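Quick log. Single chain, no ligands specified.
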Amino acid sequence: MRSQARRAVLLAVMSVQAAVGGATNLGFLKNAPIGQFKEEDMRMMRAAVDELLREDTKGASREWHNDKTGNSGRLEILEVFTSEDGRRCKKLLVVTRAKSQEQQSAYPLCAAPDGRWLIDTEAAPKR
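-> predicted structure:
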């Protein structure tokens, strides 16, 4: 069940990453690194996310590389914090690479009561 929740977070992260620039036509994705990923690339990225979200250490990271496609990525926990409303949160850096392109974005993720990690762009550390 938790693995499915982590995959949902990854898909949400990738959706947000793909939407950078406010484009309404998703044809631009074919030229973005994530648009070049094969199913095996996605599986490797999901596995890295699953593993990294189990950690609570700032600076913890995971890298993956698919020798068959040459595609790769890197994930890093930039920050671990408790939100103003008491949720456990992490700011996650997502770097995707395909061919000679690289794209990176950072997303605040907060744990929901059911254990899922959800993107929350308004999450702020408790003061």
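Strands lie at 61-65, 72-82, 88-98, 101-111, 117-119.
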